[in-house]
């Protein structure tokens, strides 16, 4: 094995660009390991964890590109380095040149009609660019994470003063003026407006609204910390103002994980003054508190969507655990459990969307009891070792722990495939619960990409004399870049049970687990 | 096509105009907007002042 380390001083490339280099060069014959990253402290730790070390790495800075390769021989290293060099120095395509600028200032000077900025640069630099954008009159989608909370408060206060909005930090999803931004779905225009501090939660609700035949006026993200007491809901309050005054919006929907105790009061006070109907899904909040403000309480993301649609149409809403006919549900349930071994009982969730993972755990805690997780609802159920799941266990694979220096599981199937195969080695696992999230930004064929590992996992269980059930939902619409129907078909072809929503998928997984436990007794 | 907002209060008229975007950072966001025929520019961002935070802060004050 030969190792080569090279530092490119004072050259910057964004993390996604470098990840593409990693993925492509890793697949070259003879390459055993590769790390091409900016030399930040976090990245240098990751580089050391994969087995590269040396003073050049230690002295690299956040402004240097660190290149480490380990391969069979000098020829392999030479080819890998040549490919890396070619990718780093590749010029923009001619048709792109007129769109590409060196600075925000020069872009706006030449395009003074610019009215919106999407910012996805390292967190420590982000608020500087946000301030510039705000002073130029732009609303901002701030995708960057690791922005200090004090800076978040500062830029949001500035935005409020300028009558603008900062959506973020750590905001990955928005649909503004019917345009999906960052990780978002193609949804029909319509009369339901949303403000959300939960990316995949927003995606699930807008997709369900679209698939019910209704549409979206605006889907505004606020970033995950907006409803903490420190930020005090500045962007959510602005979003409510926007939708309350927007002619296109008839119903307002608010979505978040549990807000801070004083922020929720602030939000509900504002809601009580809304001229339009408001539907609120704040995970874990008390229904009475929400209803007192005049808003309508929604317990799940699915219920949020269905309530919004029902109120828009002036129709009654009837809660149902499943929309599939009971006779069909029972048939599928029997099919999924008839070949299970008696010891199979646990549900393992492997999620790409944090809010979807939260929702599934919230539903399951009342049905199957304790659920361990890397993002547990109860801190006592925190998973201590990420490689050793226990009992009912849900992993948010999009958590920072997994995505530092690695692609997000909505973009890349690799990490989730490994976890699927791992779970198949545990004879006590009855069912895997997944999410497949479509839309711009997401993998073009996640169903196809996970098929092999799902097939192999099921085969492992069968060879052991058992049966591994796999349940999922597909968060997407007919007009997303991925083919929605074909994603469902590919999953069903490998024996996955595809439910119409994350909530129904979680309930069905619980039914499988409970049925097999009952049969064993 | 967006409906004309009859609300005369200009402060409420956010998002009324056609989106014209500048993307700073991850290029796929720009590429996805191009595919949807949205007017979008891309800024090939680099750390200011070669990453020297102190110099960058001084430049911010002057410029």
Work out the radius of gyration of chain B.
18 Å
What summary fits the major beta sheet of chain A?
A: 6 strands, parallel
Q: What structural category do the secondary elements of chain B indicate? A: alpha+beta
Could you report the average pLDDT of chain B, rounded to the nearest whole number? 74
- Contiguous helical run count of chain B: 2
**What global shape of chain B is seen?**
elongated
CATH level 1 name of the largest domain in chain A: Alpha Beta
Give the strand line-up of the largest sheet of chain A.
16-17-15-18-19-20
Q: How confident is the prediction overall: mean pLDDT of chain A?
A: 94
Number of helices of chain A: 20
Work out the number of β strands of chain A.
20
Describe the protein in words.
The complex is a heterodimer of chains A (521) and B (63). By secondary structure, chain A is of the alpha/beta class. Chain A has 3 domains: 2-89, Alpha-Beta Plaits (2-Layer Sandwich); 171-313, Rossmann fold; 326-520, Rossmann fold (3-Layer(aba) Sandwich), CATH 3.40.50. Chain A is built from 20 helices and 20 strands. In chain A, helix 9 (199-211) crosses helix 13 (301-313), helix 17 (414-423) packs parallel to helix 18 (446-463) and helix 18 runs parallel beside helix 19 (484-493). The model of chain A has no long low-confidence stretch (mean pLDDT 94). Chain B has a domain at 19-62. Chain B contains 2 helices and 2 strands. The relative contact order of chain B is 0.13. Chains A and B meet through helix 1, strand 4, helix 6, strand 5 and helix 7 of A and strand 1, helix 1, strand 2 and helix 2 of B. Strand 5 of chain A pairs parallel with strand 1 (20-24) of chain B, so a sheet runs across the interface.
């Amino acid at each position: 094995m030969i190792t080569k380390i090279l530092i490119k001083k004072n050259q910057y490339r964004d993390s996604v660009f470098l990840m593409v280099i990693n993925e492509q060069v890793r697949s070259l014959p003879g390459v055993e390991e590769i790390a091409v990253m900016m030399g930040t402290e976090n990245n240098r730790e990751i580089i050391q964890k994969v087995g590269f070390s040396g003073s050049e790495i230690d002295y690299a800075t956040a402004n240097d590109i660190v290149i480490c390769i380990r391969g069979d021989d000098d020829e392999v290293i030479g080819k890998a380095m040549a490919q890396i060099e070619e990718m780093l120095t590749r010029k923009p395509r001619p048709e792109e040149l007129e769109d590409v600028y060196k600075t925000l200032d020069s872009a706006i000077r030449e395009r003074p009609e610019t009215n919106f900025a999407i910012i996805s640069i390292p967190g420590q630099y982000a608020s500087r660019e946000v301030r510039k954008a705000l002073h130029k009159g732009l609303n901002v989608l701030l995708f960057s994470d690791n922005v200090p909370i004090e800076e978040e408060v500062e830029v949001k206060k500035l935005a409020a003063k300028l009558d603008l909005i900062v959506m973020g930090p750590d905001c990955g999803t928005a649909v503004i003026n019917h345009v999906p931004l960052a990780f978002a779905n193609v949804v029909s225009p319509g009369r339901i407006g949303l403000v959300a501090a939960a990316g995949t939660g927003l995606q699930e609700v807008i997709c369900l609204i679209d698939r019910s035949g209704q549409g979206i006026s605006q889907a505004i993200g606020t970033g995950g910390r907006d409803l903490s007491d420190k930020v005090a809901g500045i962007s959510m309050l602005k979003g409510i103002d926007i939708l309350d005054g927007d002619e296109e919006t008839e119903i307002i929907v608010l979505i978040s994980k549990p807000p801070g105790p004083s922020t929720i009061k602030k939000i509900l006070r504002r809601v009580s003054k809304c001229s339009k109907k408001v539907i609120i899904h704040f995970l874990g909040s008390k229904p009475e508190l929400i209803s007192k403000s005049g808003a309508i309480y929604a317990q799940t993301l699915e219920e949020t969507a269905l309530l919004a649609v029902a109120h828009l149409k002036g129709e009654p809403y009837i809660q149902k655990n499943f929309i599939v006919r009971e006779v069909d549900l029972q048939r599928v349930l029997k099919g999924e459990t008839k070949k299970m071994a008696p010891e199979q009982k646990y549900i393992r969730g492997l999620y790409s969307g944090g809010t979807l993972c939260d929702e599934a755990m919230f539903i399951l805690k009342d049905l199957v009891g304790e659920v361990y997780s890397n993002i547990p609802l109860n801190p006592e159920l925190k998973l201590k070792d990420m490689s050793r799941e226990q009992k009912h266990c849900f992993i948010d694979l999009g958590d920072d722990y997994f995505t530092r220096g690695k692609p997000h599981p909505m973009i890349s199937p690799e990490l989730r495939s490994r976890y699927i195969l791992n779970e198949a080695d545990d004879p006590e696992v009855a069912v895997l619960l997944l999410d497949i999230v479509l839309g711009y930004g997401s993998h073009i064929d996640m169903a196809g990409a996970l098929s092999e590992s799902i097939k192999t996992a099921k085969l492992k269980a069968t060879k052991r004399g058992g049966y591994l059930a796999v349940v999922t939902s597909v968060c997407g619409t007919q007009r997303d870049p991925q083919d929605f129907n074909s994603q469902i078909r590919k999953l069903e072809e490998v024996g996955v049970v595809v439910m119409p929503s994350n909530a129904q998928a979680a309930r069905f997984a619980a039914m499988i687990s409970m049925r097999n436990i009952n049969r064993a007794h | 096509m967006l409906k004309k907002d009859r609300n005369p209060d200009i402060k409420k008229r956010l998002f009324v105009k056609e989106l014209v975007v500048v993307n700073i950072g991850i290029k796929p966001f720009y590429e996805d907007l191009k595919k949807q025929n949205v007017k979008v520019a891309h800024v090939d961002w680099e750390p200011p002042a070669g990453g020297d935070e102190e110099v960058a802060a001084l430049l911010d004050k002057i410029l």
